[in-house]
Amino acid sequence: MWIILGLLLTLPSFALESFERLKNVKILKVLDKNIIFINRGLEDGIQIHDHAKLSQEEEGYSARAICLKAKASESYWKLYRIPYSETISKDLSYTLVGMGDQEIPSPEAKLRHQISKLGDESPEKKSETGPDPFSIKGDLPDKLTERDLIETVGPEQRKLFVEQALNQDQMKRDLKDFRVSLYASPFSRQSINNGQSYRLGARAGNVASKYRLSGQFEAQETQLTDPLTKEKVSTKTHQGQAQFVIHRLSESLSSLSLINYNSQYFTELGTPKSHWQIGVLGFTWHLFENKTWEYFDLSYIPLYDIRTTELFSPSGNKLSDKKNGLRHGFRLGVKNRLNELVAFENLLWVRPYQELSSWELDSGNLNLVNDLKLIFNLSGNLFFDYNLIYQYDKLWKTQSGLPASNTINSVNLRYDFDL
């Protein structure tokens, strides 16, 4: 097993992987028939016939393209879908997002079999017969005064920053393209009741450089047989999340807003019956990022916590205990692409609880979850995932007499597609 895994980890990258992101892409030259020459090539994992989207930080989704020719550090791309031609410019920087082969529409797929005359590979020279469409007019002042320096941090500049962060036109464009993942777990086992489960779920998220909206919902059910009574017992879990991100408010900072929902029935009682965590505004610090490390982030968001737990009274009646408070949500997120076939992802959430009445911080009530995932790309948009989840919830023990920790092992089959 370790030998096979070692071979997988050492496989070289031969193409731009589906949904891989290459940043700081520049257009070096524009040719006829919507062919562009960019500053990324074989060294970045680009191969001829790769299919990708071009996105721009300020304007969002700009075009779709197919690679016609790749060199060591440059490549030629045919733009076949350009919804926003004004966003194609040699003066802008782009993010190149890899797409799956099956996503190339017909007749654009036939471009792969065409031979294009790409011409000279040297940087494009300015035309002498007319004005250069990419020229930039000099707009710098001859000299700066003290007044100029004061105005740069005045109300108008602050208003400009807000407008850039909340650009409605770009938001509409960014929210057009969504990718959906459907997954099922033929095997899942958790430590609390030592039962084998099945799990179904769905995830969706848009592909965009600025405004990112994602959601997830999953249901898990475990069937057990009581060894004494031989009765069938069913335990159920439902989880959901919605998240909205404004990416890169600055070079290393993004906003974070989210809603979490959780419901778990280890017996006939809900532990919890419902658990909502609502975070209006938080922030993510991007600690490290390159071609291999898709992200290495630290996030903080205050969460309004609403939890309802079912209990039995001494007389045997079912009661509901509702508790509201504040949680400080800390998240450490890491995703690394080991090669074009294998990746791993880890999300650690630590959410200490704080009473709203006394503002006392309960350091033992952490609501901790660590979700480790090893991802294998089987073919195209078909994936095999191994998932190891560790949960710690103090209230399971204090309110329901269950162990305070739970470990879930599962294997998932997942399929991705675009809406």
Explain what the structure shows:
The protein has helices spanning 2-9, 146-151, 155-165, 168-174, 394-400; strands at residues 21-31, 35-38, 51-56, 60-70, 75-81, 93-99, 178-190, 196-206, 211-225, 232-246, 253-265, 274-288, 293-312, 318-337, 342-350, 353-354, 361-362, 368-379, 382-392, 405-418. It is elongated and about 85 Å long. Helices cover 9% and strands 52% of the residues. Strand 12 and strand 13 (293-312) form a beta hairpin. It is built from 5 helices and 20 strands. The protein has 2 domains: 16-113, Thrombin, subunit H (Beta Barrel), CATH 2.40.10.340; 168-418, Lipocalin, CATH 2.40.128. With 419 residues, it is mainly β.
Q: Give the C-alpha Rg.
A: 26 Å
Poorly predicted runs are: 1-14, 120-159
Q: Give the CATH class of the largest domain.
A: Mainly Beta
Count of extended strands: 20
Examine the coordinates and then state which fold CATH places here, giving the name of the CATH topology of the largest domain. Answer: Lipocalin
Major sheet strand order? 7-8-9-10-11-12-13-14-15-18-19-20
User: Span between N and C termini?
Assistant: 37 Å
- What fraction of residues sit in β-strands? over 45%
CATH superfamily of the largest domain: Autotransporter beta-domain
